[in-house]
Specification:
InterPro entries: Hda, Hda_lid, P-loop_NTPase. With 225 residues, this protein is of the alpha/beta class. It is built from eight helices and five strands; from the N terminus they run H-E-H-E-E-H-E-H-E-H-H-H-H.
Length: 225
């Protein structure tokens, strides 16, 4: 098996629109590429469909700010004077009541400013559609004020391509035998696959061995011990 020996831990690629594997989500991604100040988008879908990737990519692209329920301080840190060009709020199903109140206020501020020179882009994500989101009613109605897109999961073939692309970005090569073993014995969730790749990169360095099926087996034995 012709695999390279990892000599240093490869950096984790930053999320961008260009390294997002589009799959069936071309319309949503194309919309994101052309968003203007004053527009709002709600993205929803199950875990692993790419919501976090897209929100972080958009925040970086627009010099914006990314938030989730673990962000401290939360949206109260945004004022009229320092509102970034884009505000992204991820996984709103996990927001506390206080955080929901802050998001409600932000939606109202976005609405007031959407047709002014102080307009900003508002990008929000959740795991279900606006109507099904278990949050306060007045906030739920605001989720559907403008564009709403459901993000579809990748097919197995597309997940394999995504894994190979991520490995390439990290300067790694994965043989067919390695990827077949991973897809046979491990979760096919994209986030889990990317985390596994990072862990294998580190383990390959520490053992000074290339990423092969024997190394995979040794890695899982070690992690279970």
């Amino acid at each position: 098996m012709n695999e390279q020996l990892t000599l240093e831990v490869s950096p984790v690629p930053e999320p961008t629109l260009d390294n997002f594997l589009v799959g069936q989500n071309a319309e949503a991604v194309n919309t994101l590429r052309h968003l203007l100040p004053g527009q709002s988008v709600y993205l929803w879908g199950s875990n692993g469909c790419g919501k976090t990737h897209l929100l972080k990519a958009m925040a970086a692209c627009h010099q914006g700010t990314y938030f989730n329920h673990e962000s401290h301080p939360f949206l109260a840190s945004i004022t009229f004077q320092n509102t970034p060009p884009l505000v992204a709020i991820d996984d709103i199903e996990s927001l506390t009541e206080d955080q929901q109140a802050e998001l409600f206020s932000l939606y109202n501020e976005w609405k007031l400013r959407k047709n002014t020179s102080d307009a900003f882009i508002l990008l929000v994500s959740g795991d279900v559609s606006p109507l099904a989101m278990p949050i306060r009613e007045d906030l739920r109605t605001r989720l559907g004020w403008e564009l709403v897109y459901r993000l579809e999961q990748l097919s197995d073939e597309q997940r394999l391509t995504a894994l190979q692309n991520r490995a390439h970005e990290k300067g790694l090569q994965l043989s067919h035998e390695v990827t077949h073993w991973i897809f046979t014995h491990y979760s096919r969730d994209i986030a889990a696959l990317f985390n596994l790749l990072d862990a294998l990169d580190t383990y390959s360095l520490s053992t000074r061995r290339p990423i092969t099926v024997p190394l995979l087996k040794a890695f899982f034995i070690k992690t279970k011990s």
